[in-house]
Amino acid sequence: MTTDAPRAGTARPPTAAPVPHRWRNLATLTGVSMIDNTEAGVTTTLFPSIAHALRLDSGHLGLLAALGKVVAVPFGPTWVWLAGRIGRRGAIVASTVVAGGFGIAAGFATSWLQLVVFNTLMSAAIIGSAPIANAVITDSFDDRARGRAVGYFYGFVTLVSSLLGQVTALFTGLTDGWRYGMWTISGLSILAGLAVAVFFREPGIGAAEAQLADLDERDRVKTPVSVRSVFSLFKIPTFSLMMLSRLLSGHLLIAIFGVQFLVAERHFTNAVAASVLLPFGLGYFAGTIGGGWLLTLLDRVLPDRGRVAYIQAAQVFFAVVAFFATQFGYGGIAVYCVLWALMGFGQGLNPPVNRPIVAAVILPELRGQAFAIFVTVFETIGWAVFSLGAGQLADSLGIQAVFLWTLVVLMLVNAAVLTALHLTYPRDVRRVTAELDRRRAVALS
């Protein structure tokens, strides 16, 4: 309920009171996602040691990462569907605990087949929390505050998971240390899932919208979630453009092949190469936090097109830094730490703007499925294509050449494609605002 409850017949309340428990929910989701993110990338971080133990190569890494992403395509929307049946809290708990179990099993793998099966099953489970968490954040914070909330969420998730990734890499100094690393992170995943069961509180769909906050949830939701309504999302021009942008997001590849690049192309040890994960995380943290505040400023100065200019600039910045980070050799790991921090900053600029852009053009009840498509379908397809293609091409062309086309050229293409948002985004935002105003008027009539 709002503190500024409207009189009967009032079309819109002046403001909506903050959603109860929103910061506790954000902290809880951030905590569980820190562990999930670390577990999702643990095989990438430890792959040089896994490769040595199981006699694998970069092609295996590409296939491992690709399968882990491809399996998310059907399972991401499935987890969101399940959340609609058992509640979002129950779905997040189930996703995280099951993922931890499969991660522990992967740590016992003695062959490539066992590793790829259990890692793929782990990925199918762990993907469930991401779209649900994004939907909860949009239901907990209004449009003006979403950029900052998303920035805090992704900033702390990446910062801490990067630190945990570097700590996990220290296990490689032990005999079969990669197994201990996987068991440790997977055990923490199970504990994190149990923490969600204790601390998370459901905000309710549309709870942060000024037009809907003081209405009964039955009056907030008018479009039933169905296969037809989900497919109708692609009729929204802004949403379709953002999905295309996901397929062009070559910067995703740095998280998969970054450490392997430094080992194979620059000849650092696994442990030393993994030291770039912390500065990358620090840079990402700075990008998400700073980007969230910058977005708030741009929304005041350029309310219709500030977000579009911002997201374009983020793609260009990353491409320029990636060119210098990957196409030239430097003497020590310290230089790479600085460049990885800058790439992390460039990548971190994206979540505070792309999630709010998607949320602003989608009706509240469909945001869960929209984020499932965004995060677990199109982003996942992009990851899979880049991972599989890069893994195969890296063996023949080298990772450096692959990075030139994916991290630099493709990112510049992405920035150019996003220019179309200047036309579609303001129009799609007005459409959603009009529908929410209509729902309020009907509910109060």
UniProtKB/TrEMBL annotation:
It is a multi-pass membrane protein. The keyword Cell division does not apply. It comes from the Bacteria. PROSITE patterns: MFS. Its main location: membrane. One of its GO terms (cellular component) is plasma membrane. The chain crosses the membrane at residues 61-83, 90-109, 115-137, 149-174, 180-200, 244-264, 276-296, 370-390, 402-421. Keywords: Membrane, Transmembrane, Transmembrane helix, Transport. It is found in: Cell membrane. Residues 25-425 form the Major facilitator superfamily (MFS) profile domain. Gene3D superfamilies: MFS general substrate transporter like domains. GO terms for molecular function: transmembrane transporter activity. Signal peptide: none annotated. It holds the Pfam family MFS_1. This is MFS transporter.
